[in-house]
């Protein structure tokens, strides 16, 4: 039996290829993909030369996905293949010269601009369909207003701390290291007490960020501020306070305005880059500064017996709080690993979504 080539018509979209094989009453249809971009077709059916074995091979311009969807009808064989990368091809085959058996499928044919409009129309319809199924939150305006004001207040608070410390550093030099706590502690107390809301916001469904990473950061900072610095007068005059406060405020003066603008749907590219990039060096440095503060406080807690736990006389007088802080040091660096991983994934997701919007 003579082997012949059927007439094949083709069309494309940004993500798909459509092939229509003019072969009626097709049987024993065998369609396979060789490598990443070569389609092999073989079938028995009635074509231009009557009942025969028909076959053809197409080497596509770019790689395609291995899943092939085909449907045989009484008149033809329809084939649909997804492109590996969703973009418009200038032609179907790798070779510039088109095979003689291949022709455009004018029933499906669109040029690139028409296909783009069709894609946008589908996306718009899907978006409207999804939005129609999602129940609108009647309090969304109130929630956004609350989040905007919260982030604004925190931005102003940390900005005051950052500017105050920077000005004093330029005027007093290293002398400003030793009175940082007495000049900025009240504002830092206020900001860190407000930060407790960042743990509550995910639980109330006001933000999509995780509860656990927020709790690690807020609890860790509050231990340093209220316990190590706030309860030990000897720690309040140490230079490490300057570095801890300066690193904290350096991160927050970019983080809070980013979230503040996000509440009103505004994206400032420079601020976005600073928010998702500056933390990479500053966050680990902040944890190291906190660890130094904890280490410097250990002998003070041993000497003052502050927060020590009384023990029975057979076991000794008391259990020093410094042992708790030593355990906290281990947890601090474990928290650094967890939060760093979480923030890095946030950064990757952010820039992947931006790339998709650009393309």
UniProtKB/TrEMBL annotation:
Its EC number is 4.2.1.134. It catalyses: (3R)-hydroxyhexadecanoyl-CoA = (2E)-hexadecenoyl-CoA + H2O; a very-long-chain (3R)-3-hydroxyacyl-CoA = a very-long-chain (2E)-enoyl-CoA + H2O. Coiled coil: none annotated. GO terms for cellular component: endoplasmic reticulum membrane. Its main location: endoplasmic reticulum. It is found in: Endoplasmic reticulum membrane. It holds the Pfam family PTPLA. Keywords: Coiled coil, Endoplasmic reticulum, Fatty acid biosynthesis, Fatty acid metabolism, Lipid biosynthesis, Lipid metabolism, Lyase, Membrane, Transmembrane, Transmembrane helix. Pathway: Lipid metabolism; fatty acid biosynthesis. One of its GO terms (molecular function) is very-long-chain (3R)-3-hydroxyacyl-CoA dehydratase activity. Residues 3-93 form the CS domain. It comes from the Eukaryota. The chain crosses the membrane at residues 145-167, 187-211, 278-301, 321-344. It is a multi-pass membrane protein. GO terms for biological process: fatty acid elongation; sphingolipid biosynthetic process; very long-chain fatty acid biosynthetic process. Catalyzes the third of the four reactions of the long-chain fatty acids elongation cycle. This endoplasmic reticulum-bound enzymatic process, allows the addition of two carbons to the chain of long- and very long-chain fatty acids/VLCFAs per cycle. This enzyme catalyzes the dehydration of the 3-hydroxyacyl-CoA intermediate into trans-2,3-enoyl-CoA, within each cycle of fatty acid elongation. Thereby, it participates to the production of VLCFAs of different chain lengths that are involved in multiple biological processes as precursors of membrane lipids and lipid mediators. Belongs to the very long-chain fatty acids dehydratase HACD family. This is Very-long-chain (3R)-3-hydroxyacyl-CoA dehydratase. It comes from Poecilia formosa. The lineage of its organism: Eukaryota, Metazoa, Chordata, Craniata, Vertebrata.
């Amino acid at each position: 039996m003579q082997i012949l080539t059927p007439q094949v018509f083709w069309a494309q979209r940004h993500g798909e290829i459509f092939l229509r094989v003019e072969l009626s009453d097709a049987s024993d249809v065998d369609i396979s993909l060789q490598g990443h971009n070569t389609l092999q077709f073989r079938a028995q059916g009635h074509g231009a030369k009557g009942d025969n074995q028909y076959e053809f091979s197409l080497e596509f311009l770019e790689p395609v996905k291995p899943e092939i969807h085909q449907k045989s009808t009484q008149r033809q064989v329809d084939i649909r293949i997804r492109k590996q990368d969703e973009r418009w091809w200038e032609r179907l085959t790798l070779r510039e010269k088109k095979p003689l058996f291949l022709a455009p499928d004018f029933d499906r044919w669109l040029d690139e601009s028409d296909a783009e409009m069709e894609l946008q129309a589908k996306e718009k319809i899907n978006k409207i369909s999804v939005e129609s199924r999602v129940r609108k939150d009647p309090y969304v305006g109130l929630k956004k207003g609350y989040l905007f004001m919260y982030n604004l207040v925190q931005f102003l608070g940390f900005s005051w701390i950052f500017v105050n410390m920077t000005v004093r550093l330029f005027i007093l030099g290293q002398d400003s290291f030793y009175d940082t706590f007495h000049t900025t502690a009240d504002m830092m107390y206020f900001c860190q007490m407000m930060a407790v809301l960042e743990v509550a916001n995910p639980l109330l469904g006001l933000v999509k960020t995780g509860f656990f990473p927020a709790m690690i950061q807020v609890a860790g900072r509050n231990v340093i501020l209220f316990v190590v610095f706030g309860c030990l007068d000897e720690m309040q005059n140490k230079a490490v306070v300057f570095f801890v406060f300066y690193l904290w405020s350096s991160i927050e003066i970019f983080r809070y305005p980013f979230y503040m603008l996000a509440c009103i749907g505004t994206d400032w590219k420079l601020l976005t880059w600073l928010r998702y990039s500056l933390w990479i060096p500053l966050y680990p440095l902040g944890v190291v500064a906190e660890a130094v503060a904890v280490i410097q406080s250990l002998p003070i807690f041993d000497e003052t017996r502050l927060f020590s736990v009384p023990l029975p006389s057979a076991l000794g007088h008391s259990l020093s709080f410094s042992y708790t802080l030593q355990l906290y040091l281990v947890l601090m660096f474990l928290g650094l690993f967890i939060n760093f991983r979480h923030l890095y994934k946030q950064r990757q997701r952010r820039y992947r979504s931006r790339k998709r919007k650009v393309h």
